[in-house]
Amino acid sequence: MNFNNQEGQIHPDIDKDFFTARFTRTVNFYAACKMFVAVGGDDGMRLSIDGEEILGDWTNHGFAWKFGTHHFSSGEHVLVVEYYEHKNNSSLVFQWAK
Q1: Per-residue pLDDT tens for 88-98?
Q2: Which of 15, 44, 77, 95 has the maximum number of C-beta atoms within 10 A of its C-beta?
Q3: CA atoms within 13 A of residue 23's CA, in its CB half-sphere
Q4: CA distances from 58 to 15, 63, 66 (A)
């Protein structure tokens, strides 16, 4: 996920400031693994895995990164990235790698 909006609206029905978004995905791992995870944003962002917040900074701020690792057991896991835009620039990035 890589979203960067320096000017204008992301959609005609959504103001360029003061909005929220939530992205949800269920993933299935065939074997347990350890993954690098990172979330970055301007303003608040957070990553939850299976209902537990793993990374985040739910405050007004310029673009900032949060990094970590997470051990996934085999099976299904629910990833949720949440975001809010206060004002001015808006950006959100989520990355993961084995």
Answers
A1: 888 899 999 98
A2: 44
A3: 14
A4: 20, 12, 11
pTM for the predicted model, two decimal places: 0.88
Place of tokens 């809010």: 84
Which tokens is 49 given?
């895995």
Asked if 45 and 53 count as a contact pair (C-beta separation under 8 A), the reply is no
- For the chain, first and last CA: distance in Å? 16
| Domains defined for the chain, CATH in brackets | 2-6+17-97 (2.60.120.260)
**Cα dihedral 88→2→98→74 (10° resolution):** 100
Which contiguous run of DSSP H or E holds residue 27?
strand 19-29
What does the pLDDT look like over 13-72, one tens digit per residue? Answer: 877 888 888 999 999 999 999 999 999 999 899 999 999 999 999 999 999 999 999 999
